[in-house]
Design brief:
With 427 residues, this protein is of the alpha+beta class. The protein has eleven helices and 16 strands. Helices cover 34% and strands 22% of the residues.
Length: 427
């Protein structure tokens, strides 16, 4: 994918694309050599990547620190610090065999905004902070968004005792420079706005030949466990009409979940539902399956969509159980996070900035979770997406053109200048 293949990059952008590439490529080189691009949080490679970023932050004139939750923060002091902070950033950790751009593009773009402000002699009234959040991806401890949850004051105390081998999450935060003993008082109250750039992780922008997606909301994620109980019998001697096959019933349920999700996705707002985990017992070739456990991952931009899905799921399971002669236990909602809408002032500002820079844009929802969802608990927050090749992400083939990242960074640069004025008008 190249800008020359669809939209021409506007000339005279206020940001330096080469410096953005330097950050992305520098972090890409810090990886497990046989598993590009892998740099998971709480590993020596992650610390090496953090040291790389810290040097780049300092070279850009930022004052750096690690906060209690283990986030790397670079600060550029404003003329009127009492007004509070405008924060930009994302994360530098990856999933295994993850990708060069997921999170990294957002950190590189945020840092470039700070450097471009300095290049242009622009002094903000607000303080500006660039953040690399700790462990946005699912970490070795099985939990995600550790740093942004900590900054928002909602990191569960019980998580600190989670272990991987001999290492606990508490110890892991200490090793990256954080201080778990101060987490109870780490909720930030000075941040006036937070913005994050991220690759789309989907094909909408590329297919539409668009430069920027202005993210209206981060979809809520609900995970639901369903247990189907049948009866184990001999696969060769039990007549087909006398079986209570848990797998057959569960398979029909999966198809009905897909049908319901397709129906909901045709309405207003983004909606998906996926049966991503499926376990069969006794899982033997010559035994009629007696038990199936399935886990649904459902995501909704609008809460009423999720409520309709959950309300329909019960009667759906009851009907299938009666028709199949099996027992389906009431759906067990394991986790249920509501959507996080983008702040209206920030969304309109980002759209004005897109127009000013010359970036073709559209509004769209995020089906994936991001640190922005947790920052939305404590401040005005919003995101922009930039295109990625084929919509691929969380894979070695993940790719975003540097010109696309630079154009997104230019949008953030313009938005920060606008917000520096507008946030004072809202006080």
């Amino acid at each position: 994918m190249s800008k020359t293949a669809h939209n021409k990059v506007p000339a005279n952008l206020p940001v330096n694309a080469g410096r953005i590439a330097g950050i992305v490529n520098g972090l890409a080189g810090i990886t497990e050599l046989d598993r590009p691009y892998t740099r998971r949080a709480f590993t020596p490679l992650f610390l090496e990547g953090r040291a790389f970023l810290d040097r780049r932050f300092r070279a850009a004139g930022l004052e750096t620190r690690i906060d209690a939750a283990g986030n790397l923060i670079g600060r550029r002091k404003g003329r009127k610090s009492a007004l509070g902070t405008i924060m930009l950033g994302s994360h530098s950790d990856t999933v295994p065999d993850g990708g060069r751009f997921d999170g990294i593009a957002g950190v590189a773009a945020a840092l470039e905004v700070a450097r471009a402000l300095a290049d242009n002699g622009i002094e903000l009234d607000h303080d500006l902070e660039i953040v690399d959040f700790l462990a946005e991806e699912v970490s070795i401890f099985g939990v995600s968004c550790v740093g942004s949850r900590g900054m928002a004051g909602v990191l569960p105390d019980g998580w600190l005792s989670r272990t991987q081998g001999e290492l606990s999450l508490r110890q892991g935060i200490v090793e990256v420079g954080g201080d778990p003993s101060r987490l109870s008082g780490s909720k930030r109250s000075d941040i006036r706005a937070f913005l994050e750039l991220h690759i789309e992780q989907g094909p909408v922008l590329e297919t539409g030949r668009l430069d920027v997606g202005v993210v209206t909301a981060i979809s809520g994620i609900t995970r639901i466990e369903i247990i189907v109980e049948g009866q184990a019998d001999h696969a060769g001697t039990t007549p087909m009409g006398h079986r209570r096959d848990a797998l057959v019933a569960a398979s029909r349920l999966v198809l009905e979940i897909e049908r319901l999700a397709m129906e909901l996705s045709q309405g207003e707002g983004h909606f998906t539902a996926t049966v991503g985990e499926f376990a069969i017992e006794p899982n033997a070739a010559n035994v009629v399956p007696s038990r199936v456990r399935l886990l649904i991952d459902a995501r909704a931009e609008l809460r009423p969509q999720m409520e309709r899905f959950l309300a329909t799921l019960g009667p759906l399971c009851n009907g299938l159980a009666e028709a199949s002669g099996v027992t389906i236990a009431p759906a067990n909602v394991i986790s249920d996070n509501h959507p996080t809408p983008g702040d209206a002032l920030l969304l309109s500002t980002l759209e004005e900035s897109c127009d000013a820079i010359g970036a073709k844009h559209r509004r769209m929802a995020s089906g994936a979770g991001h640190d922005t969802a947790w920052m939305g608990r404590i401040t005005r927050s919003a995101m922009i997406f930039i295109p990625c090749l084929g919509g691929r992400s969380h894979a070695p083939e993940e790719w975003a053109e540097n010109d696309d990242i630079a154009l997104g960074a230019a949008v953030l640069f313009d938005a920060v200048k606008r917000l520096d004025r507008r946030l004072q008008e809202k006080v």
